[in-house]
Amino acid sequence: MEPADTAHRTTYAIKRQSTQRDATPAPDLFDSLERWLNTPDLAYASWLNHQRLRASTKTVYTAMFGRFCQWLQAQGRRLDTLDADDIRRFLDSAGSAPRQRAQRGRQRQQYVRQLERVFAHLGALGYRGDNVGSLAGAEQVGQGDDQPGRFLSAAECEALIALLTTTLADLAQEGKGAEAWIEYRDLALVAVMLGAGLKVRDLVGLTLNCIDLVEERIELSRPGCAHRARILGFAVAPIRAWLALQDQIHGAADASPVRKVFEADRSAGFGRLSKKVTLSASSVHRRTQKLLEEAGITGERACAQTLRNTYVGLLIDGGATDEQLIDYLGLQASISAQRLRASFARAKALPAGRHC
């Protein structure tokens, strides 16, 4: 994979800052080491309630940890008596009830990551034992049944970048404008994923004020988390061309900062009322697969996530530090950056012709 140009400004990222609060929060009576060791299910539910997560995510995590607590009780164990092998045994275990099957796939990794965070929190409460979640993660516990993420090969990446470049040039040479707005939009769509690593959920809500083509970054930071995606060089032109076409169609004077960057395919055309203006996640996946197929990229997991993975690979090949990966990808911790490096290293080690 061709390295990305890493000659960029030293002010590449903003530093994380704790959220300012006007009042001291009430103490959590359940958040003590004693509570975690004796009633871990109650302590976890109380602790999770204060995390910045969606309500649906909290519901899923609470149910997952509840199953883990049931296993702990059945084994007669406490959190402070566990090791990495215990986590492996839990993930490989199957209960007697039909629904209590051995954990598989992504959920196994979610368990390991949640336990890693739990034990990090226990350490802050005074626990002096090992973070068995971190140890399990280092030993790749929970990954045995998961298919590794796919990265585009160097040839595939070059083919896709070439498609973006040549298609954009052809549209300009043919004098295509508003009548080819879908083509311009889709080129920018793929450019933002491959060249800035945005997730689909970021794309569908992306607004004009998030993009800074002077600094060549996309600003998605929020309180407590820096996410300033660096736009790689090849992606700038497709994004710029699409934004210019949007100004032409809507009128530059109507370039509202909160105007959606990626709009849906509306048969009524621009300027008409429509019930659905924002591009949906399913549409993003369909349009992405279409351009991948045009570039000759097919097979398992030829999708939007693959483009984000490949962006990671381009950054790593370009010499990005862990701190840069954290900020460019909006990660929460250095352990996530290290996992991405390990995943990319395994992908590069695969025999030629094998997709990762």
UniProtKB/TrEMBL annotation:
Region (Disordered): 1-25
InterPro entries registered for this protein in UniProt: CB, DNA_brk_join_enz, Integrase-like_cat_sf, Integrase_catalytic, Integrase_recombinase_N
Keyword Chaperone tagged: no
Alphabetical UniProt keywords: DNA integration, DNA recombination, DNA-binding
Domain Core-binding (CB) residue range list: 38-123
Stretches assigned to the Tyr recombinase domain: 147-356
Protein name: Tyrosine-type recombinase/integrase
Lineage start: Bacteria, Pseudomonadati, Pseudomonadota, Betaproteobacteria, Rhodocyclales
